[in-house]
TrEMBL record:
Name the UniProt record assigns to this protein: Uncharacterized protein
PANTHER family: NUCLEOLAR COMPLEX 2 AND RAD4-RELATED, PROTEIN REBELOTE
Principal location class: nucleus
Subcellular locations according to the entry: Nucleus
Biased composition (Basic and acidic residues): 328-340
Cytoplasm keyword on record: no
Entry keyword Transferase: no
One GO cellular component term noted in the UniProt record for this chain: nucleoplasm
InterPro entries: Noc2 (IPR005343)
Organism, scientific name: Prunus dulcis
Family label: Belongs to the NOC2 family.
Source domain of life: Eukaryota
Length: 340
């Protein structure tokens, strides 16, 4: 059945037609369970055949940019349409990777994102590279597949240190992506091996950093990573299973991971709480500023209304005074005539 479905989907002309007839005969002759199997397999194959062209189109545009580097092609990648298409595929794969066979799509979209991330350099395209890092972190977290994101984050940080581009506070935000990446894999059995090269680069980055506040943050992170490496390595040396035992490898340190009592987990939780509190404080200050602005605007409007009202009243009072003086003059003239 699998061969017939494969030939129907990939073959042309007579081969595809004959394969479909075989599937139809099998589905009609045997019981209903076999019909369901045939229907599901053909449907999945049909969807798989038609879901790839859109991603292939994204890859085609990227390939064109890599070969020609024309402004028109570059604009296509830097457009909202292109990034929204990638974002949609990332969300689709992340939500359904465990229920459906989406690994071919995952491999293609990873190639596209990596290509976009390394294509542009400089502060102008920095938001696009940051978005690529967010996509890769999200895919790594949802699929359980290791993606080396730390090198991209360190490239951005080293570039910003060398060029001194942007605000100092932005470096803390970019460094959070690196922390999130390490937190995802802090309980994996291969963490000591995965963290070795990034740790070396972090040490060099710590040496060239001139901002003392940021230097302390990097040093604290390096210490936490080194402690976690020793912790995982010690636990790994105690296990009796081999690396080929995939089930045991996947269950390694899962109790510690769910309990959240390890040193690195506590560290990451504390910095996330600090980030949340900073955001809350920012929003509170922002709301207070909005209230002050609204009150000031109300006072200005009230003062303007009072001025307008006073002006109108002044004009009316002037008219009334003029009328009285005129009437008073007429009465005085009439009295003079009567007296004369």
């Amino acid at each position: 059945m699998q061969i017939a479905v494969h030939l129907w989907a990939t073959g042309r002309g007579t081969i595809s037609s004959l394969s479909f007839l075989i599937i139809r005969d099998v589905a009609s002759v045997f019981r209903s369970d076999c019909f369901d199997t045939c229907f599901v397999n053909t449907y999945k194959t049909f969807i798989g055949k038609h879901r790839c062209p859109s991603i292939q189109q994204l890859a085609k545009i990227l390939k064109q940019v890599l070969l020609t580097k024309k402004k028109e092609a570059v604009k296509k990648i830097c457009s909202w349409q292109y990034t929204s298409c990638i974002d949609l595929r990332v969300m689709l794969i992340s939500a359904n990777i465990h229920d459906y066979d989406l690994h071919p799509l995952l491999f293609t979209i990873l190639q596209i994102i990596n290509g976009v991330a390394v294509l542009f350099s400089g502060p102008r395209y920095l938001p696009l590279r940051i978005k690529c890092i967010q996509w890769l972190n999200h895919l790594s977290s949802s699929t359980g597949i290791f993606i080396p994101v730390a090198s991209m984050v360190l490239d951005i940080l080293e570039y910003k240190i060398g060029k001194d581009v942007g605000k100092p506070g932005k470096r803390h935000q970019y460094f959070m992506f690196c922390k999130a990446h390490f937190a995802q894999w802090s309980h994996h059995i291969s963490f000591p091996d995965l963290a070795t090269i990034p740790l070396v680069r972090l040490g060099k980055f710590h040496e060239i950093t001139t901002i003392e506040s940021f230097k302390r943050i990097v040093k604290r992170f390096i210490d936490q990573v080194e402690q976690n490496i020793e912790f995982v390595r010690k636990k790994r040396d105690e296990v009796p299973f081999s690396p080929k035992d995939q089930q045991s490898v996947e269950s390694f340190l899962q109790l510690e991971k769910h309990s959240g009592n390890t040193s690195f987990t506590q560290y990451y939780k504390s910095i996330m709480d600090e980030a949340v509190s900073r955001n809350l404080a920012f929003f509170e200050k922002f709301s207070e500023a909005e209230e002050i602005t609204k009150k000031a605007q109300k006072k200005i409007k009230l003062s303007q209304k009072e001025r307008v009202t006073e002006g109108v009243n002044g004009r009316h009072s002037g008219k009334r005074k003029g009328t009285v003086s005129v009437d008073g003059g007429r009465e005085e003239k009439m009295r003079r005539k009567e007296n004369s």
